[in-house]
Amino acid sequence: MPVAESLESWAARAAEVAGDPQRAIDLALAIGTVAPTPASGETPALFELFRALGRADLTAARVVEAHLDARAILAEAGHEPQAGTWGVFAAEGPGVRLDAHDSNGAFRLSGTKPWCSMAQLLDRALVTAHTAGGHRRLFEVELRAEGVGVRSGEWIALGLQGVPSGAVDFDDVVSSPVGADDWYLDRPGFAWGGIGVAACWLGGAEGLAHRLLSSATSTTREPDQIALMHLGAVDAGLFAARVALDDAGRRIDDGRAEGNEGRLLAARVRIVVATVVEDVLRRVAHSLGPAPLALEAEHARRVADLELYVRQHHAERDEASLGRRIVAEEPKR
How far apart are CA 159 and CA 156, in angstroms? Predict the structure, then answer.
């Protein structure tokens, strides 16, 4: 497969992104033509690609993952993706709402959608909106269409500075439905996409682990027992997360990750990976101290990017959600 055969080349191109959004978009366009989709028989290779991109540059991983996710969603719905760069805007937020109105079979979007990453640079997006009867539905939208207004100046994050994720206003914007009401959240690929995001987080943690290893193997100073302890714990944690991720990819390809099984798998893998990522962040900081954060631009950016990116995981709330699923499933066993 082209992606697997040229993994080092893609990683090298991701490293050249260095937080630049336009270079990330160019990379996404190039990879989008060759990357596999989930459940295609090459899902572990797809997750390995996301890890490689995350190790090299989290801006690159963030942009490429969203572009590939949009293409995978369209394929799952039986749609051929149009040319250009894609995003997926499916988050909800307090005080804002996006509604879709059906006018003789033609849908128009009105309202505000929060957390729209890279909207100012992308060509198109898949956007969820509320429909009649309390449902949500996915729509394809041209981001340069009349009535689309991308807000500026809202993104003040120190992490992922090149991936601004502010709100977008829609004023009677023409859109095309993708799937039926509630299809976006109910389809198997929703869980698979969440695992792909976790693969990007894991890659970022692996990048930090490389910095930890370089310090431990430096010829200028012998590592002490504390440094070796952190290195060993980080290595073991990353190994466990990689095993979970690889197993998930195989389950997706084998047809063992659909319906509730897929949702449980995604919840478990994301918790495993997020827990390891947060532990790596803590241990690398404790072992290396403040100097790399203060004096090394690449390391400081990677830490800031990863700390923000992994917050897509909802921590204790996601753990509670998994517990609730387990309790609900127990009577069925």
Answer: 9
Average pLDDT over every residue of 22-27: 98
Do 71 and 93 lie in a common domain? no
Please name the residues in contact with 42: beta carbons below 8 A apart, sequence gap of 6 or more. 1, 3, 4, 36, 253
pLDDT confidence of residue 329: 83
Q: Residue 327: is it exposed, middle or buried by C-beta count within 10 angstroms (0-12/13-18/19+)? A: exposed
What percentage of the chain has pLDDT greater than the value 90? 92
Residue matched to tokens 């041209």: 142
Other beta carbons less than 10 A from residue 141's beta carbon: 25
Q: How far apart are CA 196 and CA 266, in angstroms?
A: 9
Find tokens 């798998």 and name the residue.
Answer: 265
H or E element at residue 113: strand 106-117
| CATH code of residue 174 | 2.40.110.10
| CB proximity list for 192: less than 8 A, separation 6 or greater | 38, 39, 43, 72, 252, 257, 262, 266
Look up the domain containing 236 and give its range. 185-332
Residue in this structure with the two tokens 């028989």, named with its chain if needed: 41
- 46 membership: H or E segment, kind and range: helix 43-56
Model pLDDT, residue 235: 98
CB-CB contact of 196 with 50 (8 Å): yes
Residue that terminates a domain, selected from 178, 201, 218: 178
| pLDDT at position 333 | 64
